[in-house]
UniProtKB/TrEMBL annotation:
<dbReference type="GO" id="GO:0004165">
    <property type="term" value="F:delta(3)-delta(2)-enoyl-CoA isomerase activity"/>
</dbReference>
<dbReference type="InterPro" id="IPR029045">
    <property type="entry name" value="ClpP/crotonase-like_dom_sf"/>
</dbReference>
<protein>
    <recommendedName>
        <fullName>Enoyl-CoA delta isomerase 1, mitochondrial</fullName>
    </recommendedName>
</protein>
<dbReference type="GO" id="GO:0006635">
    <property type="term" value="P:fatty acid beta-oxidation"/>
</dbReference>
<comment type="pathway">
    <text>Lipid metabolism; fatty acid beta-oxidation.</text>
</comment>
<dbReference type="GO" id="GO:0005759">
    <property type="term" value="C:mitochondrial matrix"/>
</dbReference>
<keyword id="KW-0809">Transit peptide</keyword>
<keyword id="KW-0413">Isomerase</keyword>
<keyword id="KW-0007">Acetylation</keyword>
<comment type="subunit">
    <text>Homotrimer.</text>
</comment>
<keyword id="KW-0496">Mitochondrion</keyword>
<keyword id="KW-0276">Fatty acid metabolism</keyword>
<comment type="function">
    <text>Key enzyme of fatty acid beta-oxidation. Able to isomerize both 3-cis (3Z) and 3-trans (3E) double bonds into the 2-trans (2E) form in a range of enoyl-CoA species, with a preference for (3Z)-enoyl-CoAs over (3E)-enoyl-CoAs. The catalytic efficiency of this enzyme is not affected by the fatty acyl chain length.</text>
</comment>
<keyword id="KW-0443">Lipid metabolism</keyword>
<dbReference type="InterPro" id="IPR001753">
    <property type="entry name" value="Enoyl-CoA_hydra/iso"/>
</dbReference>
<dbReference type="Pfam" id="PF00378">
    <property type="entry name" value="ECH_1"/>
</dbReference>
Length: 283
């Protein structure tokens, strides 16, 4: 059954290159270039924090990329300094629980679509990538990060939040378990050089254009690999976490909602928001 799904999905993935076009919504720009590579740019100023609306648009764009048989996807940001600040804290602070439920299930959808995609995926990380920003990039198959004073990592524990097992699994899939355990428990944010050393990223770049060009080089490596074999291989390698999270979706949602209801979690979030606001007002 699983194999049949993969084969059916992979059949849809025959190269069919479209001319340049641009779509998306106000919060993302989706462009497909003449080589059939889609570029999905998050554009929710100031920091691309992932609120429900942005997640919905990313989810829709991923459907679009799958439907249009793009040969690959590059995920990037319109900000010169931030790839994504991760989940929008305001979605979690004193939340409306109905909306929080939709928020979390949309995040789950985005993860399934990106982590489990048949098309080749790469992230051009042109700035900070904490938490959900790190998750999105780790869900891709290749990461190129622009050098500079940027950091990347899963810092949820610092906010008093336990990263979902889907965040953890994605990190285990990317860097060695020992490094991941240390990073997750200490809320470690890696500098670009540190991230390269543990292979949290694959390459560095001088600027966004260089990062996109290196992502394209990665995607073009597959020009000489039969797409069906590539796609099935990727799906088989990612099958474990995907199946686990398909079975665990409801429990994962319940856990998230129960954290949000916890007064200590709300207190920590409030303090964290104050710190961010103070930092921002000092600029
Ligand atoms: C991403 C980051 C390094 C960018 O730094 P920066 O460019 O100096 O930007 P600022 O910190 O000044 O943030 C700009 C604005 O975005 C807000 N913001 C930043 N991250 C946010 C987030 N994850 N959710 C909601 N709002 C956020 C700030 O409060 C600030 O708002 P204000 O202008 O109304 O005061 C920094 O914002 C950051 O560390 N954010 C928190 C990341 C995080 O811990 N995410 C975990 C979420 S679970």
């Amino acid at each position: 059954m699983f194999l049949r799904t993969i084969v059916n999905n992979a059949k849809r993935f025959a190269p069919n290159i479209r001319a340049m076009s641009s779509q998306g919504g106000p919060l993302v720009d989706l462009t497909v270039d003449n080589d059939g590579v889609a570029i999905l740019t998050m554009q929710r100023p100031p920091v691309n924090s992932l609120n429900l609306d942005l997640l919905k648009e990313i989810s829709k764009s991923l459907d679009e990329v799958a439907k249009n048989k793009s040969k690959g996807l590059i995920l990037t940001s319109s900000s010169p300094t931030v790839f994504s600040a991760g989940l929008d804290i305001m979605e979690m602070y004193k939340p409306d629980l109905k909306r929080a439920e939709e928020f979390w299930t949309t995040l789950q959808d985005v993860w399934f679509k990106l982590f489990g995609s048949n098309f080749v995926t790469a992230a051009a990380i042109n700035g900070h990538a904490p938490a959900g920003g790190c998750l999105l990039s780790m869900s891709c198959e290749y990461r190129v990060m622009v050098s500079g004073k940027f950091t990347i990592g899963l810092n949820e524990t610092a906010l008093g939040v336990v990263a979902s097992t889907c965040f953890m699994d994605t990190m285990f899939h990317t860097i060695p378990m020992r490094e991941a355990e240390y990073a997750l428990t200490t809320a470690r944010m890696f500098t670009v050089d540190e991230a390269l050393k543990v292979r949290l990223i694959d390459e560095t770049a001088t600027d966004k254009a260089d990062a996109i060009s290196k992502c394209k080089d990665f995607i073009e490596k597959f020009d000489n690999i039969p797409p069906l074999a590539r796609s099935i291989t990727k799906q088989k390698i990612r099958q474990g976490p995907i199946e686990r999270h398909q079975q665990n979706r409801k429990a994962d949602l319940d856990e998230f909602l129960s954290y949000l209801k916890h007064p200590k979690v709300q207190q920590t979030l409030e303090m964290y928001i104050q710190i961010l606001k103070m930092k921002s007002s000092k600029k």
